[in-house]
Amino acid sequence: MILEATDTRLTETAARLRMAIVRTSRRLRQEAAGAAGQLTPTAAAALATVERHGPLTPSELAEVERVKRPTATRTLRGLADAGLVERAPDPEDGRSAVVSVTVAGRERLRRLRGRKNAYLARRMRDLPEEDVAALARAAEILECMLEDERPAKRGVTS
To answer: Which domains are present in the chain?
Structure first.
């Protein structure tokens, strides 16, 4: 009986948390849209992943982003055409290429992140200090939860 109540409470909390995360994510994408130009949310996510984990092959990007390889390849082509990533031969596999972020790509990400951070900071400005501290702790907890899901970095085995 107690276990069932705990499971129900966890499920209800998970549902509320999921909805809050989804809505916040949507608002952040909307805030960034003004600085993104023609960059789609998928392309922005791919660019950030290449910056964070790169250089990456299209297959590695697809794995990290949890999309099909053709989708990753198409997204990378658009980013390369925009000058935000550059391709180089894969030293481990001559049939493939690795992709890394260009200076222009890093600048675009900086502007996108700046807009998103400014939006959240404006929303948090009038919160009581204990609520800001609770959000900081929640961010730490979410980061730890996500660490368990990250694939191994290129060339590193666990």
So the answer is: 27-147 (1.10.10.10)
- Residues 35 and 59: their CA atoms lie apart, in Å, by 28
Our CA dihedral for 147, 151, 156, 158, rounded to 10 degrees, sits at 70
**Tokens standing for 125?**
């400005």
Q: What is the pTM of this model?
A: 0.73
What percent of the chain shows pLDDT beyond 70? Answer: 87
Name the amino acid, one letter, at 55: P
Query: pLDDT per residue over 17-48, tens digit each?
Result: 999 999 998 888 888 776 556 688 889 999 99
Question: By the 8 A CB rule, do 40 and 128 touch?
Answer: no
Contact 85, 75 (CB under 8 A): no
* Contact by Cβ (8 Å): 28, 20: no
Contact 51, 101 (CB under 8 A): yes
